C-alpha cells in the first residue's frame, strides 16, 4: 500500500504541475468603452440669386430657360421672340459633417402680389410671370445629390420663365425655396 500511496502522490504532483503550467497566472484590467454621437448637420448658404436677366418682351408669349442641370448656366430664349441679356442660375452651397445622398425640392412664391401662385411678380401689383416648381426641379441640380464633408456641394438652380405677350415693364421678384432633406 505504501507503493500505491507513493504512486498516487507522484501522479497528483504531476497533475498539479501540468495544471499550473496550463493555466498559468491571470491578471485583469478594466478597459473603458466610450462613443460620442454627433448630430448630422447641413448648412445651406445662398450664394447667387436666380436671375432671368433683362428681358425685352414682344407681342408674342415667350419662354426664357436657365438649364442648370450640369452646373452654372445663363438664360436663353427657348420659345417666342423676346430677347434676354445677362442673368444667371442660382447657387446654393451645402456644408455638412456627413457623406450622404440628399433629396432636393424647390418651391417658388411670388413677391408682394397677393398671390402664392408659382410666379414672380412686381411688388404691390397683380402683374406676374409664371415659373413653376416643376420647371425649377427639371432645370436644377438633379436630386438626389451626393454630398460629402470635403465638398464642394453645390446646388445650381434654374427654371423656365413664361413671359407674357407685351409683358408689363418692371422688376419682377419672388422667392425660390430650396429644401434639402437628409
Mean pLDDT rating: 87
In total, the number of strands is: 13
Described by strand count, sense and barrel closure, the largest sheet is: 3 strands, antiparallel
Separation, N- and C-terminal Cα atoms: 84 Å
The count of domains is 1
Number of helices: 2
Structural class: alpha+beta
Shape summary:
rod-shaped
Strand adjacency order, main sheet: 1-6-11
Q: What's the helical proportion of residues? A: 10-25%
Strand content: 35-45%
Radius of gyration: 35 Å
What is the element string, with H for helices and E for strands?
A: HEEEEEEEEEHEEEE
Q: In terms of per-residue confidence, which ranges show pLDDT below 50 for 5 or more consecutive residues?
A: none
Model description:
With 182 residues, this protein is of the alpha+beta class. It has one domain. Helices cover 15% and strands 36% of the residues. The protein has two helices and 13 strands. It has helices spanning 2-23, 133-138; strands at residues 42-48, 54-56, 62-66, 76-79, 83-85, 90-96, 100-110, 119-121, 128-130, 145-147, 154-157, 159-163, 174-181. Strands 1-6-11 form a three-stranded antiparallel sheet, with no helix packed on it. It has a three-stranded antiparallel sheet with strand order 4-3-12. The protein has a three-stranded antiparallel sheet with strand order 10-7-13. The longest helix is centred in the N-terminal third of the chain and has 22 residues, at 2-23. 25% of the residues are buried. The mean pLDDT is 87.
Amino acid at each position: 500500500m505504501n507503493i500505491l500511496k507513493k504512486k498516487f502522490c507522484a501522479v497528483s504532483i504531476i497533475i498539479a504541475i501540468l495544471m499550473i503550467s496550463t493555466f498559468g497566472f491571470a491578471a485583469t484590467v478594466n478597459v473603458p468603452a466610450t462613443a460620442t454621437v454627433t448630430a448630422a448637420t447641413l448648412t445651406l448658404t445662398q450664394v447667387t440669386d436666380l436671375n432671368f436677366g433683362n428681358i425685352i418682351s414682344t407681342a408674342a408669349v415667350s419662354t426664357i430657360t436657365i438649364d442648370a442641370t450640369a452646373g452654372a448656366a445663363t438664360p436663353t430664349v427657348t420659345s417666342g421672340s423676346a430677347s434676354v441679356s445677362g442673368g444667371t442660375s442660382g447657387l446654393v452651397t451645402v456644408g455638412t459633417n456627413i457623406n450622404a445622398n440628399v433629396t432636393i425640392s424647390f418651391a417658388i412664391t411670388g413677391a408682394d402680389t397677393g398671390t402664392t401662385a408659382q410666379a414672380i411678380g412686381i411688388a404691390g401689383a397683380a402683374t406676374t410671370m409664371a415659373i413653376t416648381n416643376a420647371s425649377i426641379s427639371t432645370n436644377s441640380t438633379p436630386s438626389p445629390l451626393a454630398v460629402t464633408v470635403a465638398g464642394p456641394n453645390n446646388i445650381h438652380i434654374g427654371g423656365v420663365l413664361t413671359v407674357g405677350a407685351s409683358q408689363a415693364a418692371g422688376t419682377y421678384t419672388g422667392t425660390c425655396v430650396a429644401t434639402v432633406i437628409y
